[in-house]
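Standup notes
- HV: blocked on the assembly model, inputs below
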Amino acid sequence: MLTFTIRRLLLSIPTLLFISLVIFLLLQLAPGDPMAQVPLTVPPEVKQKMREALGLGQPIYVQYYKWLIQFFWVEPQVFIDWATRDTFLLGWLPDTHLSTFIDPDTGAIRPVQRAISWQTRSPIMDIVIQRMPQTLWVVGLSYVVGILIAIPIGIYSAYRHYSLFDQAGTFVTMVGFSIPPFFTGPLLIVIFSVSLGWLPSIYDTTHVVTDWASFKIQFMQMVMPVMVLALQTTAQISRYMRGAMLDNLNQDYVRTARAKGLKETTVVLVHVLRNSMIPVVTVIALGMPAIFGGAIITENVFKVNGIGQLLLTALFANDLPMVMTLTFIFAILIVLFNLIADILYGLLDPRIRYD
Amino acid sequence: MTEQAIPASPIEADLELYGALVDKEPQKPPRSQWIDVWQQFRKHKGAVFGGSFLLFITLAVVFGPFLWDVDPKALDIRNKNWRPIYQLLFDSEAKAGWAHPFGTDQLGRDIMAQMIAGGQVSMAVGWLAMGLALVIGSAIGVLSGYFTKLDFWLMRFTDLVLSLPILPLTLLAVTLFRQPLNSRFGPEGGMFILIVGIIGLTSWMQTARIVRGDILALKEREFILAARSIGTRSGKIIRRHLLPNVISPIMVSATLGLATAIITESALSFLGVGFPSDFPTWGKLLSDAVSRMQEFPERVLLPGIAISLTVLSVNYLGDGLRDALDPRLRGR
């Protein structure tokens, strides 16, 4: 299992490199000049200098190599510096200065050049770190809520196969599958914000939770985005849960467990459930990146300023470094969760060994 | 001593001897596979409903413009902001009437005509993108399942494409390549080609995997061996013997592909990177209406319901097809 894990980890490096190359080449092929927004009053020679400062004249492989250095070498250094300087967890360690260097001309200590966004002229990773918590809160919470709803539904509709509950559950999951989030979002806003006036329609990210009243406001504004995303998760996972339970309920070991006089709850919730969770856990891990993708739409509907919304604004503003970084972060998430799913499957099911 | 009856003729003796083997009832005519499939399919209520609704929607958007020949782009500013006809039930004062059954938008364009025109685009994108994905997916699946040398590389490639972030990349490609395609094929044609191409190129992977799995199992069977032993060439084996046998997984993934394509196209339009603004699609209509949904909720509801019902019926159709095409489930 350990060799398998190490092999998969090593294999994910060329995968990530390939994906980054695809994204990079896509951006290279794209028409459009980052200097197009510069006013016409700027003289051409100044424009040429700006172009060179952005590294636009260099060959593609040099640009790609420099991007790789930025992402995999410079940014981790900055992160380690920040972790040993400002965080509670690692702040007790001596401060590192990996991301600074001494200027050979003046002798002053200067920070290294980081990848900057063309839009805001600030380091990309700083903006991403600012936006990340909102996305993680909404997406993570929706996933947890979705799983918590889906698993009992799946168990019960498999246990009462073809009952009214099962039929209704199948219908609801089909509907949940089919209604896209960009329709459920506005629909919920019309019902709960406009007609009933119970919930706010816009997610206020500047809101700080200090006491019970402000927690209630935070809760209210999270309900709708979380539920919209959770509906998709619930539909998918409860189907898988039902299928896995159905496969296991007819197995011989279930009859044996009943025959030796175990209680029905023990049979279903211990014997069958534990075996059925094996494929479901991998589906949960595999579905995680898709939820991040869906968050792009949900964030747009509810005006959550997370990374999905950041990607959209960067796209419209032609901010290529930002787009490149964000798309690559999504790719890392996919590769990472695929890896987790594979390893979990091997760990949970002793019959599956990849060696 | 009983006397043994002497049979009248040898033929009658044979009949008596084999009497137990003769069927009591008249023989049924042989049934074709597709009749079986159809009868199993008919048992699945949801699938029948889904199939008929899909047929209805497709016919409605194809023949709708002949029945309802209002120009979807015609402005009529005096008759703007009509409500749909059902509004008269609650409120007899409402601005509504049979001239515009679904009402008109803020520029006086007829919403029913827009829905039909939008449906045409959405369904066309869905069908074409699905077709493209099916062709690519089946080709890669068959090649990689049949030719062992290609298998490793094609499947690694499929895995790599599967780990691409699809929605961000789609957004990226649409924004980046809009300009050159628009200048070559016009704003609408260029966008159409772009969206169909992107959805098709990013959704063939599941089909390829399923087809490959089935081909791997099929090519070890005796009838393939027999075909090869009489000297059938690989291309002929694939076309004559393998493809007809993998038609059912291909059909099931076709329905899933259609649903995904319709949703992706609408999502792109919703995010504002799809078709130009005066070119109605269901997603575009929905996204345009969101800003005014407090006053005119029906403008969000109508396209939203159209998208959801179409996708729902396609999903149910896929569910029923999967059951009907599976010979182990059929006849139960």
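- HV (later): unblocked. Chain A has a mean pLDDT of 81. The radius of gyration of chain A is 25 Å.
- Next: hand off to the docking folks.
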